[in-house]
Amino acid sequence: MYKLEEFKQLVKDFSDVADFLVIYIEEAHSTDGWSFENNVDINQHKSLEDRLSAAQILLQKEPLCPVVVDEMDNSAAIKYGALPERLFALQAGKVVYKGGRGPWDYNPMELRAFLQKIK
């Protein structure tokens, strides 16, 4: 959520050259786990219904693109090494840009530079 506005600006600026998708994965900083002050109040997901409910909080922030939810086996997060967050660009089914793992290496400006090259 910290850099959601930067992500939304990417969607606005590059929707003519890219389709955007958010995959909501396991909650990295759950209230009943390792949380930060002023964090969103979300407990660790015990069921798919919990995860779907938590994804609604993100949808209320209007990410400007579709949001899907990872399965409870965390297959998408595991495949892409995305915990807690990560940016990717795919072209013809292949990863052409892989950003660093968040929160410290989550860098929407780096993805912006990549997208500007292909625009």
Plain-language structure description:
This protein is of the alpha+beta class. The chain has helices at residues 4-14, 48-60, 75-80, 108-118, and strands at 22-24, 67-69, 88-91, 94-98. It has one domain (4-118): 3-Layer(aba) Sandwich (Glutaredoxin), CATH 3.40.30. It has four helices and four strands; from the N terminus they run αβαβαββα. Strand 3 (88-91) and strand 4 (94-98) form a beta hairpin.
Short structural summary:
With 119 residues, the protein is α+β, with helices and mostly antiparallel strands.
CATH class: Alpha Beta
Under the CATH scheme, the architecture is: 3-Layer(aba) Sandwich
Approximate shape: globular
Radius of gyration: 14 Å
CATH topology, by name, is Glutaredoxin
Percent in helix: 25-40%
Number of helices: 4
Helical/strand content category: alpha+beta
What structural keywords apply?
119 residues, alpha+beta, Glutaredoxin, two-stranded parallel ribbon, two-stranded antiparallel sheet, globular
Secondary structure topology:
Blueprint: H1 4-14, E1 22-24, H2 48-60, E2 67-69, H3 75-80, E3 88-91, E4 94-98, H4 108-118
